[in-house]
UniProtKB/TrEMBL annotation:
SMART domains: WD40
Highest classification ranks of the organism: Eukaryota, Viridiplantae, Streptophyta, Embryophyta, Tracheophyta
Protein name per Swiss-Prot or TrEMBL: P21-activated protein kinase-interacting protein 1-like
Native source species: Salix udensis
Cited Gene3D superfamilies: YVTN repeat-like/Quinoprotein amine dehydrogenase
Length: 219
C-alpha cells in the first residue's frame, strides 16, 4: 500500500507501507519514504492515490501527478483557473491503473481527465461557489459534489454534464459513496447524514461532539 501526504509548506511526500524486514509475516508495518517534492507554488489542498498513480492539487491552481513505483513526477495539469479543492481517481475493479481523474475547484467547476495518458476531457460548471468535495460512484458513471453554495449536485460522467442539483439549507463539507455505491454520506459541521443513493432519502444521522474534518467509507 502507498500513502501520500501534502502540507502547507508546498511539499508532497510519498510512503510505502510494508511489513518489517526482519518480521515479514508479522502484523507490524513500517512506512518507508518513497519521495519528497516541493511540487507546488502554494499550499497543497487535496491529494489522492490509486494503484501506481497519485495526484495533488493546490491553491496555485495546478494538479501535479506522480508515479509511485518509480517515485517520479509525471508532470502537471493546468485546466483550473482557481484553487483546486478536491481530487479523486476512478479505478474499475478489473484494472490496476485508474481510468479517470476528477478534480474540483474554488470557481465551482469539475474537470474530468482520461488517465491513459492524462488528457483533459471536459470541464463542467457544477456549483455557483467553491466545490468542497466530490465522490465518484463505484460504477464510474456518476459523481456527487457538495459546495459552498449549500447545494448537492450529481454529475453524469457518461454524458459529461450536471444531472441533478438541490439546495441543502446548510453547507456540507464532505460527501462520500459507500464501497458498494448503494448509499452515500454527507458531513455538515458535526453531523453525518447517511442517504440512499437512488433517491437521496435520509437513512440515519450521527451527531459527533465536534465538527467532523475528515471521513472515509469502510466495509
Amino acid at each position: 500500500m502507498s500513502l501520500i501526504a501534502g502540507s502547507y509548506e508546498k511539499f508532497i511526500w510519498g510512503f510505502k507501507l510494508k511489513p518489517l524486514k526482519h518480521e515479514p509475516s508479522s502484523q507490524n508495518l513500517t512506512l518507508t519514504p518513497l519521495f519528497s517534492y516541493q511540487s507546488h507554488l502554494a499550499h497543497i489542498t487535496a491529494a489522492a492515490a490509486s494503484g501506481p498513480a497519485a495526484a495533488s492539487g493546490s491553491a496555485d491552481d495546478t494538479i501535479h501527478l506522480y508515479d509511485l513505483p518509480s517515485a517520479s513526477s509525471l508532470g502537471s495539469l493546468h485546466q483550473h483557473t482557481s484553487s483546486v479543492t478536491a481530487v479523486t481517481f476512478f479505478t474499475p475493479p478489473s484494472l490496476s491503473f485508474p481510468r479517470n481523474l476528477l478534480s474540483a475547484s474554488a470557481d465551482g467547476s469539475v474537470c474530468i481527465f482520461d488517465t491513459d495518458p492524462f488528457v483533459h476531457l471536459k470541464t463542467v460548471l457544477v456549483h455557483k461557489k467553491a466545490v468542497n468535495d466530490l465522490s465518484v460512484h463505484p460504477s464510474g458513471k456518476l459523481a456527487l459534489t457538495v459546495g459552498r453554495d449549500e447545494c448537492l449536485a450529481m454529475l453524469n460522467l457518461v454524458r459529461g454534464r450536471r444531472s441533478f442539483y438541490c439546495r441543502l439549507g446548510k453547507e456540507a463539507s464532505l460527501v462520500k459513496f459507500d464501497l458498494g455505491g448503494e448509499r452515500f454520506f454527507m458531513v455538515t459541521e458535526e453531523k453525518v447524514g447517511v442517504h440512499e443513493a437512488e433517491d437521496a432519502k435520509l437513512v440515519t444521522e450521527f451527531e459527533c461532539p465536534k465538527r467532523v474534518l475528515s471521513a472515509a467509507p469502510g466495509e
